[in-house]
Write a structure and sequence with these properties.
Length: 620
């Protein structure tokens, strides 16, 4: 960047990419973010940042940012004033309120601040009277935290990030933290190399974590995790390795009874693991003095998150490895404020529609007005055709975003919103730290903060608008028990970590297993290295490391198909086909292929169907 460090205005804030919640310092000049730097005194991570946090900030000052409101006239989006655009949205919401609030729905990104998410919820629940709200994390992270609610009574991890360094055995489930939450990958590296933490990985593919010393990776069939965890529990019960406290917990008898069908001899083939491996892993976990399970999860893993959270928490309860240092289950949300969205319960409660229900409602005509904030369902939700049909069917679509996304291009009204660098507020990390986000630059063009936009609409719908962030935060602290005692101005510089009082119980989980389709390969989707959602597509660092989508397949499969690296392949499922470049690697098991979901060109969600595994065929 072309400026002396001393000439920059420095603003401490929080990274807006993933749920790790790293703090960073933005270097600002002439209303532009020119750099981000780390300060080793900042945050739990001693200032470490990954490529996204360090080199992915360019989206803030991108030329492609939306700068004015847009209103559709004669089928075309045209520039409009805020009065005209907000007036249209207000009229539509007011009309719906008077005739049928349940015909209005909202989808919001968990990238907003807690205060904005709270206002969004108030706007829908109180301002409009609709409970049809959800966030993208509702696809996966919310499913995990919903599992935590039933097992623990609260939608948050029964563990903290510091437990990574104090545990004896870390069991990482389903993904590679180096890709989803890179700074946690560094933390794991430190734990393994300096503290001698034994690393066990269960995943449908190998990753960089698998290369660490002491790491043993168990590759299982996609979407068999719940079955596998039940099998581990069965071994522990049968071998008398359960903790004496377990049998006194509610739900224990039913849980043990339901494990009958999960003996390793019965389920090993479905999991794609040997009986010996399942038994060894169960013994290692149960016999470790302290053991921590880590579930880094993202939007791209639909289907069975709730059961997965419950199955892992059951294992921790069974062995007494919960509520102690170095123990528990650490649930890592994909987005920067996934945990805040869970804490604030940004999802339907009594009879409202969740994200899938909202899209179904749009398609059927039950939902007539959809307000999408910071989400791009066309690209990031499964089954693109179905999503596009739903968005095309809805009568009135409002999209509030930083960029003209594929979803925004279908809107009747587009509202330009602010990035994290233009706003004050708080994010809550997956480690339950409530941290201050600080405004570094003035808003770009005519963009307005989500807080400001929601507050305007809220007041025009007859509710008292909020005066400021402190007032909203105080209200949050009064309704979210774990935030009680926290104040906006009193938050700790390094984040105020809240604790939760859990009420523990076993919840029996349905064992899953995926039937394969003859001759087909299992497609799993997820994060590409250094990407997170669709925001990272506007960051130079992430795009330098990974500029386009691809399909990754095992070298043995590639040989059978006669496929070479970078060759364009047709990947076909029951709902469509897409052309992607081949990436041949050793980390995929045979019969399983992987594709990142972020990219709009050749979008993999054109062919996913919303199930944990989509079966595909591959041809040249
Ligand atoms: Fe940002 Fe996550 Fe990277 Fe930390 S690990 S710098 S929060 S993207």
């Amino acid at each position: 960047f072309k400026a002396r460090w001393w000439s920059l205005n420095k603003v401490k804030t929080v990274c807006s990419y993933c749920g790790t919640g790293c703090q960073l310092t933005l270097g600002v000049k002439d209303n532009k973010v020119l750099t981000t730097v780390y300060d080793e005194n900042q945050g739990f991570h001693n200032g470490q940042l990954c490529t996204r946090g360090r080199f992915g900030y360019q989206f803030v000052n991108s030329d492609k940012r939306l700068k004015t409101p847009l209103v559709k006239k004669n089928g075309k989006l045209e520039e409009a004033s805020w009065d005209e655009a907000l007036g249209l949205v207000h009229q539509r919401l007011a009309d719906a309120k008077s005739v049928g609030a349940s015909s209005v729905a909202g989808l919001v990104t968990p990238r907003l601040t807690n205060e904005e998410l709270y206002l969004f919820k108030q706007l829908f629940n109180k301002g409009i009277g609709s409970d049809n709200i959800d966030h993208s994390a509702g696809y996966a992270h919310d499913a995990l935290t919903a599992g935590a609610v039933e097992s623990l009574g609260y939608p948050a991890s029964p563990a903290s990030i510091s437990d990574i360094q104090t545990t004896n055995l870390l069991l990482v489930v389903k993904t590679d933290a180096y890709e989803t939450h890179p700074v946690l990958g560094f933390e794991i590296n430190l734990g393994v190399k300096r503290k001698g933490v034994n690393l066990r990985i269960v995943s449908d593919k190998k990753g960089k974590l698998s290369k660490l010393p002491n790491a043993i990776t168990y590759v299982h069939k996609p979407a068999s995790e719940v079955l596998l965890f039940n099998a581990l529990a069965k071994v522990i019960v049968d071998e008398g390795l359960a903790d004496s406290s377990a049998s006194s917990l509610p739900g224990y008898d039913d849980f043990v009874k339901n494990l009958g069908a999960c003996a390793p001899a019965i389920v090993a083939a479905q999991c794609g693991m040997s009986i010996e491996d399942i038994t060894t892993l169960a013994r290692d976990y149960a016999k470790a003095e302290k053991a921590l399970i880590m579930l880094p999860i993202g939007l791209a893993y639909p289907g069975h998150g709730k059961a997965l959270a419950q199955a892992t928490i059951n294992l921790a309860l069974l062995t007494g490895k919960i509520g102690k240092e170095g123990c528990g289950v650490l649930i890592m949300g994909e987005k920067n404020n996934s945990q805040g969205a869970a804490d604030l319960r940004i999802h339907p409660v009594a009879g409202g529609r969740d994200a899938m229900g909202i899209l179904d409602g749009c398609a059927s005509g039950a939902i007539k007005t959809l307000y999408v904030v910071g989400e791009n369902p066309v690209i990031s939700y499964p089954n693109r055709k179905k999503v596009e049909a739903a968005l095309d069917a809805v009568e009135f679509l409002v999209v509030q975003d930083l960029f003209m996304t594929e979803t925004a291009s279908k809107a009747d009204v587009v509202l330009p919103a602010c990035s994290f660098a233009e706003k004050n507020g708080t994010f809550t990390s997956a480690g339950k730290a409530v941290q201050r986000v600080r405004k570094a630059i003035d808003t770009i063009g005519m963009a307005r903060s989500d807080f400001d936009i929601f507050n305007s609409l809220y007041s025009t719908l007859g509710c008292d608008s909020f005066k400021g962030l402190s007032e909203v935060f105080a209200e949050i602290a009064s309704v979210v028990p774990s935030y009680s005692g926290l104040t906006f101005d009193g938050l700790d510089e390094n984040g105020s970590v809240y604790s939760v009082a859990n009420r523990l119980r076993f919840v029996s989980t349905v064992a899953d297993g995926q039937e394969s389709a003859a001759g087909a390969m299992a497609l799993v989707t997820g994060n590409a290295l250094n990407h997170c959602g669709t925001l990272s597509l506007h960051g130079e660092g992430p795009m330098y490391v990974c500029p386009e989508g691809y399909v990754e397949l095992n070298s043995g499969d590639a040989k059978k198909l006669g496929v070479e690296n970078d060759q364009t392949l047709t990947v076909k499922s029951s709902v469509g086909e897409v052309k992607l470049k081949a990436k041949v690697s050793m980390r995929m098991p045979e019969g399983v292929v992987f594709a990142p979901y972020h990219f709009s060109d050749m979008s993999i969600n054109s062919i996913t169907n919303g199930a944990p595994v989509t079966w595909v065929t591959i041809s040249k």
